[in-house]
Design goal:
The protein is α+β, with helices and mostly antiparallel strands. The protein is 44% helix and 21% strand.
Length: 272
């Protein structure tokens, strides 16, 4: 009996420290040079990069990075994933109806597959997908995935645009890192399909997956650019959000500032 207790104690001594280390919250490292990029662009915002292997967060404006905002069209990543997982859509190439009504963006006035719709951020197509999923299933999946505050309110097709759903930049990168590595509690084929349709750019040894978002329902509005970079076998999830004071002036800056931050951190090479 004493030998058994000794062996059990030894096992716990060996196994618990690694487990504790694996579950430790990521360390935050502030990078003032990233804040300078925002200042030069005249933007109030935050950027965070999650180095999955090192379990470290690197960024600027930590207080803002931990504050929740409307996810806007970055939610299309999760909407796609849930829709595929619950069978609301057969696959990323099944066309969904936009509804036939005039839209603020002409490109949205077309039935589209998720593969097409996510690239032009087609709101009515994704609203149709959300209605097919239904409010109860949406709530269940949000809770399972621990996505932001998990709140949907009573309208299944606007909660990510108008509220009450909110998520922080730090929560975005933790979610996206799990998606990038196929570690979400969702069907592997659904996760793989979403990784496929979020691919934006790639080159030798690297790939960029990303999605923009913008919501002007509140003042100031919020603009997002989120995603991850796969580089040399490693995953770097990132999230940027900014105040949108002027939609036309500020929305193009999301990618400009975001790429500049990724380049400064050595995750992406400067564009030629």
């Amino acid at each position: 009996m004493r030998l058994w207790k000794f062996l059990l104690s030894l096992f716990l001594l060996l196994i618990l420290p690694p487990l504790a280390q694996a579950q430790a919250p990521p360390e935050w490292r502030d990078r003032p040079e990233l804040a300078a990029i925002f200042a030069e662009a005249g933007l109030d915002g935050a950027f965070v990069l999650y180095d999955v292997r090192e379990n470290k967060l690197v960024g600027c404006n930590r207080a803002r990075a931990e504050k929740r905002y409307l996810p806007a069209s970055t939610f299309k990543i999760l909407n796609s994933l849930i829709g595929l997982a619950v069978g609301a859509v057969a696959g990323v190439d099944e066309a969904l109806p936009y509804g036939g009504k005039p839209q603020p963006i002409k490109a949205w006035e077309k039935d589209m597959s998720l593969r097409e719709a996510i690239k032009v951020s087609n709101v009515p197509v994704y609203q149709e997908l959300a209605r097919r999923i239904g409010l109860e299933r949406m709530r269940t999946e949000l809770a399972k995935l621990d996505y932001g505050n998990g709140e949907t309110g009573k309208k299944v097709d606007v909660f990510w645009l108008e509220g009450p759903l909110e998520i922080s930049a730090v929560e975005q990168v933790r979610f996206l890192a799990r998606l990038a590595e196929g570690q979400l509690p969702m069907p592997p084929e659904a996760q793989a399909a979403v990784r496929e349709i979020t691919l934006q750019d790639q080159g030798p040894g690297w790939a960029l997956h990303a999605k923009t978002g913008a919501a002007m329902r509140r003042k100031p509005g919020v603009g997002w650019w989120v995603g991850w970079v796969e580089k040399d076998g490693r995953v770097y999830a990132f999230a940027l959000n900014i105040d949108l004071e002027d939609f036309d002036r500020d929305t193009p800056k999301r990618l400009e500032v975001g790429r500049a931050c990724l380049e400064r951190l050595g995750v992406l090479e400067p564009a030629e």
